[in-house]
From TrEMBL:
Protein name: WSC domain-containing protein
Chief place where the protein resides: membrane
Species for this entry: Macrostomum lignano
Topology in the lipid bilayer: Single-pass membrane protein
Subcellular location: Membrane
Residue ranges of every copy of the WSC domain listed in the record: 1-90, 97-188, 198-288, 297-389, 399-489, 496-587, 597-687, 696-788, 798-888, 895-986, 996-1086, 1095-1187, 1197-1287, 1296-1388
PANTHER family documented for this protein: KREMEN PROTEIN, PROTEIN SLG1
Top-level lineage group: Eukaryota
GO terms for cellular component: plasma membrane
Signal peptide per UniProt: none
Length: 1405
């Protein structure tokens, strides 16, 4: 027996036979139905038994609709109203000889063609019987309700067995396929094996009235073997069976296209287990008969690409006749050497193959031959090529080469007729070579033409020259007006010619003479043309032009690949390219002549006022003749012009340089060289040199320049610019250095390098205008040399140059040292002798002396470059400009120590600031601050002195930030912008021993004083005030406004201020500060007030929030210290005290409700009453014990439960006691009376009871009233019970009660009976409730409900944690399931204890 499920019943019964009625059980119904031989039975409405072999006609329902208790056994279910709880009896029907083949995909075209809707009868046995009776080999079950039959399966593919899991409508325990999925089995029927050699199934093909297979040989009781034997006996290659009873034979098939095998599924009349085509559908097979193609020389060549221009030109669409044998015979009959098969339906023929390249062999296996579906016939635009066995006639043709296919015209391209008629390529070759022609062509299959040039009308594609030769059809002989041109092997030669390379050309022409030779263009022709005109070089360009010249390569060499254009006169050769010359030598060359010093300088423009002044030769001029004539006359340069003039001179280039392409007129005396052009000189150097020589002239280097000039004197010499000329110019002016700039300027000066050195390459960019062979600096670059002049020497120990400074009518350096023939050395001596620290030279002739400078500001060096009258090789200031020097005399500041560079701002690190202006020096500021009694002085921003007794309030900075030059001495640094260079003045306080002294800060004071006691006034110092306050036992003292001393035990009432506000000097010691106006500089004296008591210990740092861990909070403000808070909380009787946020005391009896915090969190707030100590932090208590302890009681079994609300109808109804209550006393009173729970309320009441929690739980903080009998413990609150258990237990005991587990539930209920017990909910109560109703199981749910039933686990088990989430409302110490979770128990013959029943009987009533 097995349970199947709950099913709907109707008036026409699902299980039709009555098994029995009345006191029914599941077991009794099983016996009744099995005895009658039924496979299934069902129990209904608790009292009916029904039997049958099928079920489920009206559908399945949920189990919860079949939960009527059986009349014969209430602990089990027996269906419902019109609901059968169905079981199997275990009897089965068998299907023998059946094999499961798998799960297969199906669709509307049907894998197994016969489909029978069996409905609720659908089982494996039923479908087997149905399909086997119809002669099918296979059957299938689909979608739980259909049988399918057929002789083949798997057309749409196999799928996973999981997709065939739909339950059979005839037996819900079994699976019957799925939606469009067949579970396929064999029926056991099979055909006998027959040996049919060569048989192959080719597919299902469409047929029409003009038959695809022409011969009908059988009709009637046809089978595949019968048809095979009939057609093979008649030598047919193919046969087909049609519509179940016809047999057709033929040698071709497929004329009307292939169809799906699904259309050829009519059963054969002679064998129903196989298919024999369909209506107008042939199931086609091959018989194995083969028609072979055999011929000598037939070979497979390969797979070749084709396109619309055709590799093999003859194409015949053979369609269903297309086979290798047919195409072979077709092409051989036409005399072609090759045949091909293309796209399965075409034969192609030709004499050459492979024009478009080979293809992959896979490409020629894509199309099936239409005449034989078993073979492959090429592919789309792919020829599968074979030889026909025919070969061309052979001829001896030494030197012959094929050139290409060319157009012909009425004026013949090859003008001479070689022959006509039965022409072959070999015969035409012999005829034309015999006549001495270099080329021949065959045309229109029957004409032969000869000539020495070809290509006049242009080249065409090879496919236009594919007429078969009349004398040999296996070769091509041109086309209509198309010559297939060949070379005979005869050549013309060009001797003595050397290829020089491929060179770039443009419209300005590399080789100036250009001749368009057209179709005559060959290397031999161009050589002859250029050589006859006396040129040294010739070139071939663009295949159709000759170029001639005496020089080449002006526009650069290019890769030889760019000179590959075919010569129009000979297409086998290359003749340059587009704007590319293939250059060769003609063999003409000038005789070598020794001309020492000769150098070509370029092509230069000339005008009527000549660039080179002297004409020395005219007529038959050559370069050597002109060189000798000009060198003999000592000229440095010469030029040849317009082919017949010779000019000489020492300068050139006045009218600018031109391109060498403008100087290409041939010399009259030597045509192989160029002699300038019209108004163009080809200029050369003769080698004659004019040297610059002087003692001390040396190259200094290349230097940068700009518009302010490194060398101040600039002379634009233009075409006279040479090194020699600039040397003479600058030396004559008395300068130490000269330079050459930009090729056209001389620069002079006494100093060099102001703007830095430049790369030597920068001074080699500009050619000297006076000598193009030399370099004269560059743009803004001086090529600098010494002139050999040196400055006068003086002894000047300690002298240093400071810079160029502005002067005014009130002189910057006020004393006149001297005037007239002044030098720097003389002025130094005059001013040092008078004891001045600085001197300046001005306007080249004045000397001024002084101890300060710079009043009117500094200027650039370039404004101080007047030459000194006494020494022109040095500078002596400028107009109202002093070139200032130090004499070496110094003023000293003794006993001064540099302390560092420090940050400053508007609040001032050193409070006294003095603007010293141009007097600012270290010595001046020392004197100023020391006279005012300060310990430190600083220099700031180059112009200010700062004084004070402390420094560094705003931090130290890098020394680099204190580099501003002192206005009183530009050689020294005086701090920076908001930066003090701080020094000590040497003043310091005497050390005094003051034990316990500690500076606490600067604090605000008011009329109601922060420190209450004034003890001193007048000449106050910090040590005096310390001693006076310590003697009076005060913990703190403060000095105020420089002359007052105040004492006290608390400080800080009016908040702390910046130390910068406490910087009034003490009247008794000006080197220290004594507060400020209403500002105390506060110190600790070291006197300590300790907190001492037995049991005081540090507990730790604890978190707090607005609900308070320690409930009593007192804001002590500036009185807040550890000692004060200890006394405050102990006086109130609390066990713990805490310090919080620096200003509050907290008290309580318990601690740590919100957890511990880091000790760092309790060190964040300084005690307001003692700034040296820490008093907790924000929402952080630093907690200590007060030393008080609670009273002790013996309380065995007592446990604390929590804080609960109380009401007028008391939660714990019995009064235990009132007055001086403690937790221990209340425990004793209630336990004595036998109560399970007790509660203390409002500090003075004791209540007892066996249940609690009616009004809900509250937070612990609402139960913190101190007990009247023991203030160190809490006793509830107002209408709040602090509830405890006494340890008294009421147990539930029954035989056979066991815990089953935790189970899921939902609104459809796992246990159908639900009773909401609320605060009565306990395990004992629910046990009694469900037992009284006769159920096997009881459960506890959500803390407030009992559930009962006979079966469990319908919705599955849950985690035990899920049943420990809800506390029992009747006993808060126990767990009663969870939300939608049943904590489940069962019983077997359970007996309840009488004492438990008596205790709880009133609840059941």
């Amino acid at each position: 027996m097995s349970h199947i499920g709950c099913f709907v019943d109707g008036r026409r019964r699902d299980l039709p036979t009555v098994g029995g009625k009345g006191s029914i059980t599941v077991g009794r119904c099983y016996g009744l139905c099995k005895k009658k031989g039924f496979r299934f039975f069902g129990v209904q409405i608790g009292k009916q038994c029904w039997c049958g072999n099928h079920y489920g006609r009206y559908g399945r329902r949920d189990k919860r609709e079949c939960r009527y208790q059986c009349r014969g056994d209430k602990t089990t279910y027996c269906g419902g109203s019109w609901r059968n709880d169905v079981y199997a009896t275990g009897l089965e029907e068998h299907a023998s000889g059946v094999t499961l083949l798998g799960c297969f995909r199906d669709n509307s075209k049907r894998d197994l063609p016969l489909v029978h809707g069996a409905g609720h009868r659908t089982t494996k046995a039923y479908c087997l019987k149905y399909c086997k009776s119809r002669g099918y080999r296979y059957f299938g079950l689909q979608a739980g309700s259909a049988c399918t039959c057929g002789n083949k399966y798997g057309s749409f593919g196999r799928v996973n067995a999981k997709q065939c899991r739909t339950r059979c409508r005839g037996d819900k325990r079994r699976t019957c396929g799925g939606s469009w999925r067949n579970s396929v089995y064999s029926t056991g029927i099979g055909s006998k094996p027959v040996r049919l050699p060569g048989l192959k199934h080719l597919g299902c093909y469409l047929d029409k009235s003009s038959r695809d297979l022409r011969k009908l040989v059988l009709s009637g009781s046809v089978t595949v073997p019968k048809c095979y034997k009939a057609c093979k006996a008649r030598k047919y290659r193919f046969f087909g069976v049609q519509n179940g009873y016809q047999c057709w034979c033929g040698n071709h098939y497929g004329r009307y296209r292939i169809r799906s095998n699904l259309e050829c599924r009519v059963q054969c009349r002679g064998d129903k287990s196989t298919y024999c085509g369909g209506a107008w559908r042939n199931n086609v097979y091959a018989t194995g008969v083969v028609v072979a193609s055999k011929a000598a020389g037939v070979k497979y060549v390969g797979c070749f690409k084709d396109n619309r221009y055709r590799d093999l030109p003859v194409v015949y669409t053979a369609n269903y006749k297309t086979t290798k044998a047919y195409c072979f015979r077709y092409c051989r009959a036409k005399g072609y050497r090759y045949f091909g098969l293309q796209n399965g339906n075409a034969c192609t023929c030709g004499n050459t193959v492979g024009r478009y390249g080979r293809a992959s062999s896979k490409d020629c296996a894509r199309s099936t031959c239409k005449g034989d579906k078993r073979s492959k016939c090429g592919g789309p635009w792919r020829n599968s090529v074979f030889t026909t066995g025919l070969k061309p006639k052979s001829f001896k043709t030494p030197g012959m080469s094929h050139i290409g296919c060319f157009v012909d015209g009425r004026r013949r391209d090859l003008p001479t007729v070689g022959g006509k008629g039965s022409i072959t390529v070999g015969r035409c070759y012999g005829l034309c070579k015999k006549k001495g022609f270099r080329f021949f062509g065959v045309q229109i299959g029957k004409q032969c033409w000869c000539g020495n040039h070809y290509g006049r009308y242009g080249r065409r594609d090879k496919r236009e020259c594919r007429y078969q030769c009349r004398g040999d059809k296996t070769t091509y002989c041109g086309g209509s007006w198309r010559n297939d041109v060949y070379a005979t092997g005869l050549e013309e030669h060009a001797s003595g010619v050397t290829l020089l390379g491929c060179f770039r050309d443009n419209s300005k022409r590399d080789l100036p003479l250009v001749h368009g030779a057209g179709h005559r263009t060959t290397k031999a022709y161009c050589l002859k043309y250029c050589k006859s005109r006396g040129y040294r070089y010739f070139g071939l360009q663009a295949g159709s032009a000759c170029t001639c010249g005496n020089k080449y390569g002006s526009f650069g060499r290019v890769n030889a690949k760019q000179c590959r254009t075919r010569c129009r006169g000979d297409k086998r050769r290359t003749c340059g390219g587009s704007w590319r010359n293939s250059v060769y030598s003609t063999g003409i060359g000038s005789k070598p002549v020794r001309l020492p010093g000769l150098k070509h300088l370029g092509c230069y423009l000339d005008k009527s006022s000549r660039d080179l002044r002297k004409l020395v030769l005219s007529g038959s001029v050559t370069v050597p003749k002109c060189y000798k004539a000009c060198k003999a006359r000592k000229y440095r340069f010469f030029g040849v012009q317009n082919g017949y003039q010779c000019w000489c001179g020492n300068h050139y280039g006045r009218y600018r340089i031109r391109s060498n392409l403008e100087c290409r007129v041939q010399c009259r005396g030597d045509k192989s060289t160029y002699c300038g052009g019209a108004w163009r000189n080809n200029v050369y150097a003769t080698g004659v040199v004019v040297a610059s020589k002087a003692a001390g002239v040396k190259y200094v280097g290349c230097f940068k320049d700009n518009r302010y000039r490194d060398l101040p004197v600039v002379y634009t010499a233009n075409y006279k610019t040479t090194k020699a000329y600039c040397f003479r110019y600058c030396r004559a002016k008395g300068y130490r250095y000269f330079g050459l700039q930009n090729g056209n300027a001389c620069t002079c000066g006494n100093t060099v390098g102001r703007y830095g050195r430049a790369s030597s390459k920068d001074c080699a960019r500009s050619t000297c205008k006076g000598d193009k062979r030399s370099k004269c600096g560059g743009p803004w670059r001086n090529s600098v040399f010494t002139t050999g002049l040196k400055p006068k020497s003086f002894k000047t120990p300690g002298m240093s140059h400071i810079g160029c400074f502005v002067d005014g009518r009130r002189r910057d350096l006020p004393t006149v040292g001297g005037k007239g023939s002044i030098t720097v050395g003389r002025c130094y001596g005059l001013c040092k002798k008078k004891g001045f620290r600085f001197f300046g030279v001005q306007i080249g002739k004045q000397c001024w002396c002084g101890n300060h400078y710079g009043r009117y500001g500094r200027r650039d060096k370039r404004e101080c470059r007047y030459q000194c009258r006494g020494d022109k090789t040095t500078y002596c200031g400028g107009s109202w400009r002093n070139d200032v020097y130090a004499t070496g005399l110094e003023e000293h500041a003794s006993g001064v120590t540099l302390l560092g560079c420090f940050r400053d701002n508007s609040k001032r690190d050193l409070p006294l600031v003095h603007g010293a202006g141009h007097r600012t020096t270290k010595a001046y500021c020392l004197k100023y601050c020391k006279s005012r009694g300060y310990r430190y002085f600083g220099l700031q921003a180059g112009s200010a002195c700062t004084c004070g007794n402390k420094y560094g309030s705003f931090g130290r900075v890098n020394a680099k930030q204190c580099r501003t030059r002192c206005r009183g001495d530009k050689r020294r640094t005086c701090g920076g912008s908001w930066r003090n260079s701080v020094y000590s003045t040497g003043i310091g306080s005497k050390p005094v021993r003051l034990p316990g002294l500690k500076h606490l800060g600067c604090y605000l004071d008011k009329s109601s004083r922060d420190l209450r006691k004034l003890v001193l006034s007048g000449s106050v110092t910090v040590p005096k005030c310390y001693k006076a306050c310590k003697a009076r036992k005060y913990r703190f003292f403060g000095v105020q406004n420089g002359y007052q001393c105040w004492c006290g035990n608390h400080y800080g009432r009016y908040r702390i201020r910046s130390n910068l506000e406490c910087r009034v000097q003490c009247r008794g010691d000006k080197s220290t500060y004594c507060g400020g106006a209403w500002r105390n500089n506060v110190y600790a004296t070291g006197v300590v007030v300790a907190s001492k008591a037995a049991g005081v210990k540090y507990v730790g740092c604890f978190k707090d929030n607005r609900y308070r861990d320690l409930p009593v909070v007192y804001t002590a403000n500036y009185k807040t210290t550890k000692a004060y808070c200890f006394r405050y909380c102990r006086a109130k009787g609390y066990r713990y005290f805490g310090l919080q946020n620096g200003n509050a005391c907290t008290c309580g009896n318990t601690v740590g409700r919100y957890g511990r915090a880091s000790s760092k969190d309790c060190a964040r707030s300084t005690c307001k009453g003692d700034k040296r100590s820490k008093c907790g932090g924000p929402w952080r208590n630093s907690v200590f014990t007060t030393g008080l302890k609670p009273k002790s009681f013996k309380t065995p079994g007592m446990s604390h439960i929590g804080c609960f609300v109380d009401g007028r109808r008391r939660d714990l109804p019995t009064v235990g006691g009132k007055g001086s209550i403690t937790v221990g006393r209340c425990y004793g009173l209630c336990k004595k009376k036998g109560f399970r729970f007790f509660g203390v309320q409002i500090g003075k009441q004791c209540w007892c009871g066996n249940h609690y929690g009616r009004y809900g739980r509250r937070d612990k903080r609402e139960c913190r009233y101190q007990c009247r009998g023991d203030k160190t413990t809490y006793c509830g609150g107002s209408w709040r019970n602090d509830v405890y258990a006494t340890g008294v237990v009421v147990a539930s005991k029954a035989a056979g009660v066991k815990y089953v587990g935790c189970f899921k539930d939902n609104r459809n209920r796992d246990l159908p009976v639900v009773y909401t017990a609320n605060y009565k909910t306990t395990k004992a109560y629910c046990f009694r409730y469900c037992r009284a109703k006769g159920y096997r199981y009881f459960g506890l749910q959500n803390g407030n409900a009992c559930t009962c039933g006979n079966t469990v686990g319908r919705y599955g088990r849950a985690s035990s944690k899920d049943c420990a989430r809800s506390t029992c409302k009747g006993d808060k110490r126990s767990k009663c399931g969870g939300p939608w979770r049943n904590s489940l128990h069962n019983r077997t013959e359970a007996q309840e204890l009488q004492d438990t029943w008596n205790v709880s009987h009133w609840l059941l009533c």
